[in-house]
Target: Ras-specific guanine nucleotide-releasing factor 2-like
Amino acid sequence: MSMFREFLGQAWMKNDKNSRAPHILLMTKRFNDVSRLVASEILRRPSLSARVAAIEKWAAVADISRCLHNFNGVLQICSAFTNSSVFRLKKTWDKVSKTMVGLDHYEMHSTDVILPIAHVIREIRHFQQTPYKIELIRKVANYLLDTSLLMDDEELYNTSLEIEPRTSRLSTSALGQLSLSSKS
Model:
């Protein structure tokens, strides 16, 4: 069964999806692996400035991917940015250059992701005819395929909490005012 038939027949949603949709399952796994790689690379950075630099680097990669009409690459990186472990890093995102990322992190919702998908679907036939003329760089390919660099979801979130612990909804000053008003 071709990937086209797998897609149109929604074979990935069937009970026997492993045999009916192997290509879609592999593409989905690859998408998730790259997204997890980006999130892992951001969360592995020990300092705020290094995390900001990592986000800005990946935003630049997303922009290059967009220029190459590699919308899947753009979405993989956007998916990493919206991963809860990365998205919650308010102190980090406050330092990221909004012009570098090309969008306001806090206004990026699923509708923004749906729009690029719709664009991809409209133009997919056109870009299928456009061959990539990219030289294979073995070091880059090996890096992108190295699954030992990936953190699982639990490790991503625990690392995120170590970097920026949860903050109370009530600030210390608000708690102080609350206790003063209760004494009067």
Q: What stands out?
A: The first helix runs from residue 3 to 8. Confidence is low (pLDDT under 50) at residues 103-108. The chain has twelve helices and no strands.
